[in-house]
Amino acid sequence: MATTRLTIEDFEKLPDEAVKHHELVDGELVDVSGNTGEHNSLRDLLISLLLPFVTQGKLGRVLSEQEYDFRGNAHGPDVSFFGPEKCELYNRKRRVQRFVPDLAIEIVSQNDSFESLLKKAQRHRSCGTAEVWLLSIEGRQAYLYSEKQNVILEEKEEFRSGLIPGFSIRLGTLFDRV
């Protein structure tokens, strides 16, 4: 018996309770719950650091947990950024934005497998996201996937993105503040 796969439009119509802590992956709802206080603290810290910087510089928008359409898959990076050219596309009434962010930051949580995060990062990149950062609090490392490089950064190195000129913070300092 064939199962009906959900589309972005179907996902958009589901009640909030049905999609809370879920993403749409290959037509199926996938549970992405399990964020710890540590995870949420890092997400909120990143938003608090990036938001005033991006707003003052009129660089675009920074959002947390916003879902985007990655070729029919709805993923909501922990933190996302998109530049001014995509601000016109942003529809605050939609659950799933019909574009992809320029920067996606995913924070490793206890329920994540490395393979699933790597697959998500590859999907983000193949759909047009310029940079994907995977932050590991436990490992005190960041994995950067971009057009220019794929690299593992240690805590003495900096979280910085060419998409947000001038912003940087040492990874160790970031993890220490969680």
Considering the chains and any ligands shown, give keywords for the structure:
6 helices; globular; 29% strand; six-stranded mixed β-sheet; alpha+beta; tt1808, chain A; 178 residues; three-stranded mixed β-sheet
Q: Quick gist of this model?
A:
The chain is an alpha+beta fold. It has 6 helices and 13 strands. The chain has helices spanning 8-13, 16-19, 37-56, 84-87, 114-126, 171-176; strands at 22-25, 28-31, 61-64, 67-70, 73-75, 79-82, 96-97, 103-107, 131-136, 141-146, 150-153, 158-160, 168-170.
Molecular structure report:
Helix content is 30%, strand content 29%. The chain is an alpha+beta fold and 178 residues long. It has one domain: tt1808, chain A. The strands form four sheets. A six-stranded mixed sheet has the order 3-6-8-9-10-11, with helices on both faces. It has a three-stranded mixed sheet with strand order 5-4-7. A two-stranded antiparallel ribbon has the order 1-2. It is globular and about 50 Å long. 31% of the residues are buried. The model has no long low-confidence stretch (mean pLDDT 93).
